[in-house]
Amino acid sequence: MFVIVRHGNTFAAGEPPRRIGARTDLPLTAQGQAQAEALGAHFAALGWRFSRVLTSPLLRTRATAQAIVAAQSDIPVPESCDWLAEIDHGPDEDKDEATVLGRIGHDALAAWDAHALPPPDWRVDAEQRLSGWRALFASPPADGPILLVTSNGAARFALLADPALQAAMRDIPGLKLPTGAYGLLRRDARGQLEIAAWGQRP
């Protein structure tokens, strides 16, 4: 079972959101920290004990992972994975949404949210990300769930890395994970991956 978490909030209430990617390493806000702690309590209440913890190198994902594992004991040390890092938004990095839409247009952003097709000049490195997910999915079964804490731009590639998950994408509203939310991928009786949850918050 793979539990894919998007980090908690990095913008305070009322602060206009911006396109924050690989080049902007923001900390969690107080609300973001609370979201991370709520995830930790939620997973502990479900009885999930993670056998492995993978994070992106960014501060916001590492802090979220630390808050989650603090609710458990005897958890493996989190591993940093470059293929889980947020994408680089190129000229749109740290820009507000109106500015980004003015440059790339609504159709380009919709294609990113629905199909992970990057807008012009965004640096995504899709093949590295797909390879990372595929290698993880092909690894021997773990003793317990595997926790992955990443960002919205990176998490979506999990669903594109496996044919069964691609087919299941039609049953979810979009690829985007909200902040402080998680997706759950597991194998069915035939051994195929399925989307058990996507975009769920405690």
Characterise this structure:
This protein is of the alpha/beta class and 202 residues long. The chain has one domain (2-200): Rossmann fold (3-Layer(aba) Sandwich). The protein has helices at residues 30-45, 59-69, 97-104, 106-115, 126-138, 152-155, 157-160, 163-168; strands at 2-6, 52-55, 79-80, 146-150, 182-187, 193-200. Strands 3-2-4-1-5-6 form a 6-stranded mixed beta sheet. The longest helix is centred in the first third of the chain and has 16 residues, at 30-45. The protein is globular. The two termini are 18 Å apart.
Please name the CATH architecture. 3-Layer(aba) Sandwich
Uncertain residue segments: none
Beta strand %:
5-15%
- Give the CATH topology: Rossmann fold
CATH homologous superfamily? Phosphoglycerate mutase-like
Summarize the main sheet: 6 strands, mixed
What sequence of helices (H) and strands (E) makes up the elements? EHEHEHHHEHHHEE
Radius of gyration, Cα only, in angstroms? 16 Å
Structure class = alpha/beta
Q: How many structural domains are formed by the residues?
A: 1
Enumerate the strands of the largest sheet in spatial order, edge to edge or round the barrel. 3-2-4-1-5-6
> Total number of helical segments?
8
